[in-house]
Amino acid sequence: MARAAVPGRLGDRLRWKTARLAERRPESPAARTLVFDVPGWPGHQAGQHVDVRLTAEDGYSTQRSYSLASAPDGERIELTVQRVTDGEVSPYLTDELAVGDLVELRGPVGGWFVWRPEQKEPVLLVAGGSGLVPLMAMIRHRRAAGSRTPFRLVYSVRTPADQLYAPELRRDDPGLDKTYLYTRSTPPQWPRPAGRLTPADLTRAGWPPDFEPTCYVCGPTGFVENAADLLVALGHAPDRIRTERFGPSGG
Predict the structure, then answer these.
(1) Where does the record place the FAD-binding FR-type domain (predicted)?
(2) 217, 243 Cβ separation under 8 angstroms
């Protein structure tokens, strides 16, 4: 059977590339940001992800997908990996991979769940746990591009200790409004009790539907489905709600 030719640019994204770990830093007790140098990296958009492949000495190979955390910036990329208990890949990446070690990457992947600086409509980012990672790439890209597009972030996380990028998000970032929701425990004297995302949270911290924002929702499947349903019930157009979800994959 004849095969269609793969364009060069797309073909580059489908090929595995060698990436060398240049830096690692903690984000939470269970998450690490891994900074890789990737020669020949074709560039990416905020919101895309990559496939990571690990191969053992006996030839056994396994792979997982991880969102890009960094704004587009040459041949260096960042991934933030949350350790999955009893996982196969994430414990190795978070606890054992050392600076100078090599992995294989393929991508970037995805074209729907992305934000581009030429977009001028307001943006609502709704994150559950480590679903913040691709949304953080959008925040960083906005900042790097000098965009004045107004962003609002609603970030739901179990406890204050589980929050990712805490020092960076504490900085003043004009045009970015941030709201934190805690589902298990809150900081002392926090005005909102611990609990899951509600319509009142999105009404208070989001955009009115008549502003026609683009909404990006990312997190565990249950969180994403609930958040998307709430946004539609509040009057947001379904075609302006973009979702990215993750679930158990063996870690």
Answers:
(1) 14-115
(2) yes
**197-227 pLDDT per residue, tens:** 999 999 999 999 999 999 999 999 999 999 9
Assign domain 9-108 to its CATH superfamily: Translation factors (2.40.30.10)
Task: Report cis status (omega within 30 of 0) of the bond before 248.
Answer: no
Contacts of 212 (CB under 8 A, 6+ apart): 121, 122, 237, 240
Model confidence over 149-170: pLDDT tens digits? 999 999 999 999 999 999 999 9
Domain ranges of the chain: 9-108, 123-246
The tokens for 216 are 């990006």
Q: Which CATH fold would you assign to the domain 123-246?
A: Rossmann fold (3.40.50)
- State the pairing for strand pair 176-182/151-157: parallel
- Cα separation, 193 vs 197, whole angstroms: 11
